[in-house]
Amino acid sequence: MSSSSTATAQIHPGPNAAPDPYEYQSGFGNHFSSSALPNALPVGQNTPQVCPYGLYAEQLSGTAFTVGRSSNQRSWLYRIRPSVMHRPFSRYQENPFVVGAFTDQTSTVTPAQIRWLPFDIPENAVDFVDGLRTLGGAGDPAVKNGLAVHIYTASRSMDRRAFCSSDGDMLLVPQQGRLDITTEFGKLMVAPNEIAVIQRGMRFSVSVPDGPSRGYMLEVFDGHFELPDLGPIGANGLANPRDFQTPTAQYVNQIEEWTIVNKFQGSLFAATQNHSPYDVVAWHGNYAPYKYNLAYFNVVGSVSFDHIDPSVFTVLTCKSAHPGTAVADFVIFPPRFEVQMGTFRPPYFHRNCMSEFMGLIHGSYEAKRGKFLPGGASLHSTMTPHGPDSATVENAVARDLQPGRVADGTQAFMFETMFQLRLTEWAAQSQIQDTDYYKAWQTIPVTFNPDKI
Ligand SMILES: O=C(O)Cc1cc(O)ccc1O
Ligand SMILES: [Fe+2]
């Protein structure tokens, strides 16, 4: 936290926040269209008898056909070969750490505060598929209810294999190393402090241009991410729609052996095929992957007194059927001014009916002086007490409340969910946990004095 150089600090990152070689279409949830060859999209219809260039039309549905128009999502892909041209699926045995259903009693359940030290990136060459580890989750994708939290690590690029999830939409939060992602819709370069959303069913391959890479992944088994309503904030602010970027069509026409790894009801399956799945020459629709740079988040907060609930930092929300209650909110704790007077400024002590999974992209988090480190994580489950650690408290009650900067150079985030999470066996092992986490709060000074108000 510092109050220096605020007058001259450049607050907005400008156009070069994260240089990126690819072209995008801008907007959130638009009906996009993109063509890698001139006039490859059929005009005025989706399924002509023969599509331009002899392509095949294939629809990818993100919602039931019958969902109301305002939330209906689908895209039409015009491809060299329909994606059904693959050989039979069989179980993929190489990565047993991806877990799907969280209903069995073998998962670990605990109301304890949990902190994980930064997750190791394996030294042997693993790609995104084999480096994926499920940390925990709730519910069951078979009944489209719940979510999973995963950690991904990769030390090499995926080689002629693609991944997709039939179980839900995935929100990727890179923490170390850029992800160069090829999708059926085109390419996305996603750097730390950017996020990407790749929806249910979309095939993608991850390359790691910076070598060993790590990040977080949230998978929601129902619904889609949307921008939160702004209410009294007005028409602008938080994540603005035009800062979301969706890829442009690119295709290859390659006959070579490819493997499609499909996450299906929590297990991995693989099927081979004799061609690249990235043969989509043109596409149109509103069901498409996107990325967003967190530096463009327009922060709103208290400019008078008191600590505002972190819902004001919601980047994306996946709504549940209960009004105002999310399957998951993706919330960030971005650099900003803090000016509240007469206020205990750090995140308050609380017990929440929602569960809070947090990660750190870089820097240090405003509520924790201890070992909450980039690439690590914490979980404060439903009604589990938590709040700032002792050192943060001591500073907060004693400090001079000048206007200042909070979280400069840092970016923490939270997946906040209405569900209660169960941990996988992998996540519950003590070697990767900070078993001393509870000590963070044990030395909070007791300052009660009935004689002094
Ligand atoms: O627990 C946390 O650190 C996250 C959090 C931050 C905040 O500013 C208010 C509530 C909250 O849960
Ligand atoms: Fe919290």
Radius of gyration: 23 Å
Number of helices: 2
Query: Under the CATH scheme, which architecture of the domain at 297-438 would be assigned?
Result: Sandwich
Strand order of the largest sheet: 6-26-25-28-23-22-16
What is the highest CATH level, the class of the domain at 297-438? Mainly Beta
- Subunit arrangement of the protein: single chain
Report the major sheet: 7 strands, antiparallel
Low-confidence stretches: 1-7
Looking at the structure, what is the overall shape? globular
EC number: 1.13.11.5
GO molecular function: homogentisate 1,2-dioxygenase activity; metal ion binding
Organism: Coemansia interrupta
GO biological process, one term: L-tyrosine catabolic process
SSE topology:
Layout: E1 24-26, E2 32-35, E3 56-61, E4 74-79, E5 90-91, E6 114-116, E7 133-140, E8 145-154, E9 161-165, E10 169-176, E11 179-183, E12 186-190, E13 194-198, E14 204-207, E15 213-220, E16 225-226, E17 245-247, E18 255-264, E19 267-275, E20 280-285, E21 290-293, E22 314-319, E23 326-333, E24 336-338, E25 355-362, E26 377-380, H1 390-398, E27 404-406, E28 411-417, E29 422-423, H2 425-428
Parallel strand pairs: 9-18
Antiparallel strand pairs: 1-17, 2-20, 3-4, 4-20, 5-19, 6-26, 7-8, 7-29, 8-15, 10-13, 10-15, 11-12, 11-14, 13-21, 16-22, 18-19, 22-23, 23-28, 24-27, 25-26, 25-28
